[in-house]
Write a structure and sequence with these properties.
6 helices, 5-stranded mixed beta sheet, alpha/beta, about 170 residues, 5 strands
Length: about 170
């Protein structure tokens, strides 16, 4: 059985301003660094067999601070590439775009990536995981995709929130 401890990276200046960070490689801000240190005590409650992170700085730094094991970075755990929407404030997007992004399934960022492509690349990563408990430090879109398929349904995950998920075999 594969058990995942999904940890969203800490806050960045863009996420604090409700800007779409996507594949932009942004560092944690001071708040994000504090969140990562606080997350370490929650992660320490679990015995993990391996740790992984997105290869983007905000996830790598969160993993370095919060994980008791060194985390292996993997680009398949990156946030969705928002293309032309990168850096845009969510509240400034056209209503139609906001609604499509909130609906999630079927969303494709103009000049960027579709949710289906995000899910497909994350699935290739998951298929390679051995049985055991894995800490995965990643992004809100990745976690949302996994929760919709394996977890408690659709919801947004806060910075440095830790969410356990048990993977059931896909049919």
């Amino acid at each position: 059985m594969k058990r995942l401890l999904l940890l969203r990276h800490g806050s960045t200046d863009w996420s604090s301003e409700r800007k779409l960070c996507g594949s932009s490689d942004l560092p944690l801000n001071d708040r994000g660094l504090r969140e990562a240190h606080e997350a370490a005590s929650r992660v320490a409650l679990f015995a993990i067999d391996a740790a992984w992170s997105s290869d983007l700085d905000r996830a790598v730094t969160t993993a370095r601070i919060s994980s008791p094991l060194p985390a292996s970075p993997d680009p398949r755990l990156r946030e969705m590439n928002f293309g032309d929407l990168e850096g845009e404030r969510f509240d400034d997007l056209e209503v139609r775009t906001r609604e499509a992004l909130l609906a999630f399934d079927g969303f494709a960022a103009p000049g960027g990536e579709a949710v289906s492509a995000l899910s497909a690349r994350v699935d290739t990563f998951l298929d390679e995981l051995a049985h055991g408990t894995h800490l995965i430090v990643t992004h809100g879109g990745v976690i949302r995709s996994l929760l919709r398929r394996y977890g408690e349904g659709d919801r947004l995950v806060l910075p440095c929130e830790l969410v356990p998920v048990v993977l059931e075999p896909r049919t």
